[in-house]
Structures are given as C-alpha cells and as structure tokens.
Amino acid sequence: MELNNDEIRRYSRHLILPEVGLAGQKKIKAASVLCIGAGGLGSPIAMYLAAAGVGKIGIVDFDTVDYSNLQRQILHTDADVGRSKAESAKETIRGINPHCEVVIHNTRISSENALDLIRPYDIVVDGTDNFPTRYLTNDACVLLKKPNVYGSIFRFEGQASVFAPHLGGPCYRCLYPEPPPPGMVPSCAEGGVLGVLPGIVGCIQATEILKLAIGKGTSLVGRLVLFNALDMKFRELKLRRDPACPVCGEHPTIKELIDYEMFCGIVPEPENVGNPDEVTVQDMKKALDNPNLHIKVIDVREPDEYEIAHVKGVPLLPLSELQSRFTELDPNTQYYLHCKVGLRSLNALNFLRQQGFKYVKSVKGGIAAWADEIDRNVPRY
User: Fold this and answer.
1) pTM for the complete prediction?
2) Which of 188, 203, 245, 248 is catalytic?
3) Are 337 and 362 in contact (CB under 8 A)?
4) C-alpha to C-alpha distance for 50 and 97, rounded to whole angstroms
5) For this structure, is 100 an active site residue?
6) How far apart are CA 128 and CA 36, in angstroms?
7) How far is Cα 23 from Cα 43, in angstroms, rounded to an integer?
8) CB under 8 Å to 119, separation ≥6 — which residues?
9) Cα dihedral: 299, 300, 302, 303 (round 10)
10) How far is CA 33 from the centre of its chain?
C-alpha cells in the first residue's frame, strides 16, 4: 500500500511523527472502518478518519437530514435537509479527501444484514443512538472478532470505550448486561444534547481507531472514559470481562444474532391496530374546542420546552414533578396528556394509572404531531 507524492504532502504531519511515520501511514491507508450512523458521533468520526487517510470508510445510515440535526451533525449542511444522510456524508468525505474510498449502505442495520455489513471491515465504530442497535453491533463484532469502538452522548455527558474480547477486553454486554426498560432513558430528541459534545466524544473514538490501525499507544480496551462537559471533567473506569457474559464469556449462549427489539422490550404494534391508551392530536383538538366533553389536556414536558412551544390553553405539569403533584389532579376527571413526541406522556399515564386514575390517555405524537397536523404556527424543535 504505497503513498503517491500528493499523499505524502497531505499526510506530512503524520509522516514526521516517529510513532506514525511512513509505515504507520501506510497502515492507516490500508485500514477499513465501518461507521454505523452518520449523525452526531458519525460526523466527526468520518471527517477526521477521512482527513487522516483511512483508505476505506463505510457509512451505514438509512435516515434523512433534518433541520434539528444541523446543530451537531457537521457532515451535513442546510442544503442537505431532506437528503439521504449516507449520500450527504459521502459527498462531504470525498470533499475532504478524494483518496478515501467511501462505501455507503443506505439501510437500517439489522440481525439479517449486520454480519454481512461488518465482515469486510477491519474496525467498527458505533455512532448509534439506541439500545437495540448497540447490542446488535456488539454481538456482531464479538462473533466476527472485530474491534467495536463505542461512544454515546446525552445532554452534557458522554462516554467512550473499545470493546474487543478477542484483544483481551470486555464487550458492551459485560458493561451493560441488560438494557434499561423502554422509555426509561430519553433519546436526544427528548432530552437534548449540547451540540459540541458529539464532536468531543467522536474525536476520542476517531483517535482510538487510528491507534488500532497503526498498533501504537494504549487503547481504551478495558477502560471506559466518562466526560462531563458542564464540569469539563474526565473520569475513567476500569472494565473487566465478565466470564458469565452470554456472548463473550467462557460458556457463551448467544452464538448468533437475536431479535434485539424484543431483547430491549420494544414490541411493535400490530399493523392497523392502535394503542388503546393513545388518542390523536385531532382528538386533543376536539377536547380543547368542546368544553362539554369535560376532558382536560395537560402538557407533561419541562418548563424550558413549554417556553419554546406550547398549545394555547394547555397547562403545564412536568413529568419530573408529577410524583409530588399528582394530588392536584382529580382521579374522576378524564385527562389527555401530551409531551414532545408521545413517550413521556405514556410514562406519565402509567404512573397515574398506578395511583388509581382510570380516565387517562396519551396524545400520540405529542406537540410535534400537533405542529404538523393542527397548527403549523407552533414551532417544531
């Protein structure tokens, strides 16, 4: 894997590093990396790997660019809104380094295709934002003996590690044997994320990939780095391989990929059958327009979100305060609860049911659906 004169000029600051040199840069050029996700984490990862001269970068992403992505997903620009993220990523990467081969996989990674997607690559980097895909990526990498460079972000905090049992370290399941209950951990869409945070965590992941490629330095295998942006503090935890781990332990029971949605407790609704605990934004509008229905609508988002956008006449009772304030509500009144997209309102519904409230419904799609279907003057965020 030789370097031409243009590449020697391009990578000159690598070449004069004794730890990299010509031999190391050739290893970087020979490396292939599969980036699962072209979003907040995938953006800095892919861009820095391309700039560093990684020879082949695969991008797995089935989503399209949304305006709300642009605050952190720097692979994409305003002109890319509505466009395939994988296509947008390829164009950006090729603009950074035309010597880099970019292979796009405009598909959702699944138990059916994960092994085939991952097998041709040397290193896998996890830029995903949901638990089923994290467990899927982990298990596929363990089965194929590929290093899994992990990162995750939420609000002001991030974490990173390298899971590689074949290199003597633990896997993701050793750290998190069981996923949290569905809806327990809010997504970035629900909880928010500081725009620069994925840049910091993604750069840590990209650094680990380059170190793996050249075989230098001390990797994050067996270590978990925790970062708090508000406090500007890094912490490190030592990780150990769990001998009882079902996928990388001494007697593994998971020898092929499973149904990860089911493993994480996410049960798809039957087609054309709605959730009996949910109502539509049209139902919510009827309740607001007709006081004779005696249905009260409550917003269970947080005050900062209410300030950004709210439906006129709908009072706020944040989910975070519901446990201490539910006695303000009448158990004999019918309530429609809404949040941003309909997840927290279901959590609020379940809590109120446990307190004896029988007449409670969650508004499917929340204020986002209201903005799309009822009142376009209400901002989406």
Assistant:
1) 0.84
2) 188
3) yes
4) 6
5) no
6) 6
7) 27
8) 144
9) 40
10) 19
55-75 burial string, b = 16+ CB within 10 Å, else e?
bbbbbbbeebbeeebeebbbb
Show the CA angle centred on residue 111, arms to residues 106 and 114, nearest 5°. 50
User: Which pLDDT tens digit goes with each residue over 72-129?
Assistant: 999 999 999 999 999 999 999 999 999 999 999 999 999 999 999 999 999 999 999 9
Catalytic position from the list 100, 171, 248, 339: 339
In the annotation, is 339 catalytic?
yes
Q: How far apart are the first and last CA of the chain?
A: 47
310-365: pLDDT as tens digits: 999 999 999 999 999 999 999 999 999 999 999 999 999 999 999 999 999 999 99
Amino acid at 130: N
HEC per residue, the chain: CCCCHHHHHHCHHHHCCCCCHHHHHHHHHHCEEEEECCCCCHHHHHHHHHHHCCCEEEEECCCECCHHHCCCCCCCCHHHCCCEHHHHHHHHHHHHCCCCEEEEECCCCCCCCHHHHHCCCCEEEECCCCHHHHHHHHHHHHHHCCCEEEEEEEECEEEEEEECHHHCCCCHHHHCCCCCCCCCCCCHHHHCECCCHHHHHHHHHHHHHHHHHHCCCCCCECEEEEEECCCCEEEEEECCCCCCCCCCCCCCCCCCCCCHHHHCCCCCCCCCCCCCCEECHHHHHHHHHCHHHCEEEEECCCHHHHHHCCCCCCCECCHHHHHHHHHHCCCCCEEEEECCCCCHHHHHHHHHHHCCCCCEEEECCHHHHHHHHCCCCCCCC
**Please, what are the domains in the chain?**
31-263 (3.40.50.720), 278-373 (3.40.250.10)
